[in-house]
Amino acid sequence: MNLNMKFLFTFLALLHLLINTSFAQKQDDCLKADLIPILVKGKFGFCDKEGRIVIAPKFDDAEPFVINMLYYIFNKDKIYGKADFATVKLKDKYYRIDKSGKPVFKFNPDEIEQVREYKEPVYKEFEEGDKKGIKLDSTVIINCLYDEIYHPDFYYKEFPFRVKKDNKYGIIDANGKLLIPVIYDDIYYNYRDYISAGLLKVRQENKVFYIDYCGNQYVK
User: Which domains, ranges and CATH numbers included, belong to the chain?
Assistant: First the structure.
């Protein structure tokens, strides 16, 4: 092998390493969860950050391993509300599972009530024509470009906004930066609960699956 070929192979190897390292760093910046709900042939399981299946796809629905605040506050078995467990749906029944996929507690989400103390919103929605925008005090955070803007708690600054335009949804952060392009048929309203995992539950072309805040899709 001549020197030019050795140089070429060395260059390609370094380029491959650089690309993979950059992707891993980018993913780590967007994704905080170790296990991610992944849709495989219509069923949810869980994979690791490399996409390897850890918990077999068998659930009708699944949420990330995050704190279930309502469950944690109102249910006497508080341990199952911690982030060591995830909520899944199987045959119209709801369970909290551990990280091996074992159901450890069955519950009825309708029995958990939400009680909140009222706080004065810090964000204000305003309109120009039929389009909506967002102000923080007198500063415009989001220009009036959207048909609908949703925020899970208008008095918490750390939560991003779900926006709708031409029947498509995207995500804008609290500084007005577009995080997720407005391309999805739906972004589920309870995305607030998944922020700690760096995940969003979306619907596109009749498929419901998860993406991270870099837009990586967890579906096969």
Answer: 36-111 (2.40.10), 123-207 (no CATH)
